[in-house]
Structure formats: C-alpha cells, structure tokens
Amino acid sequence: MIYELASIKIDPTKSNEFEAAVKSAAPLFKNSKGCIAMNLQKIIENDGEYLLQVTWESLEAHIVDFRNSQNFQDWRALAGPFFIEPPKVVHSDIIGSFF
Q1: Are 10 and 84 spatial neighbours (Cβ–Cβ below 8 Å)?
Q2: I need a surface site. Which of 42, 43, 45, 90 has the fewest CB within 10 A?
C-alpha cells in the first residue's frame, strides 16, 4: 500500500463548496482500480488549506491507472476550479507503526 498526500489550497470563503465537491467526488475514487480509502483533512492553522489522503494498492494504481482515467478527469472538473495553485502531491509508505 502507498499513500497519496495532496496539499490543496483554496479560497477560504469557498470552503463549504469545496468540501461538498470533494464529498461528491468520493465515488470516483472508490470505484477506481486499486483505491482503498480516501479522506479529506482541513488544516487547522491555515484557513483554506487541506490535505487529501488517498490509500492505493500501488503507486501504479494512482499515477497510471487513476491519472489516465475518466474518474480523474471528473475529479479535476469537480475540485479543480477551487484550487488557487496546483496541489502538491507526494507518495509515502509506512515503514513502521510504533504504537
């Protein structure tokens, strides 16, 4: 498993609309090959900043299968208009769980 972590910045006055758009996009992720889980986190210290965390079976499931799918295009159509800059995306792998 790998974790996609996308740092997203939006206009804070549009938070409710953005959150609704992400919620409506959840089935696009859920129905995508290799997608295990998805959540949206609001950054407490900075209005208008979010962290989208998506769990994928593999890096390929995200960067090849999802990114080349209609589901990705539909996701960007729903959420993309809210982005004030391109999301910063990294991928991580858990190397240890200590408690």
Answers
A1: yes
A2: 45
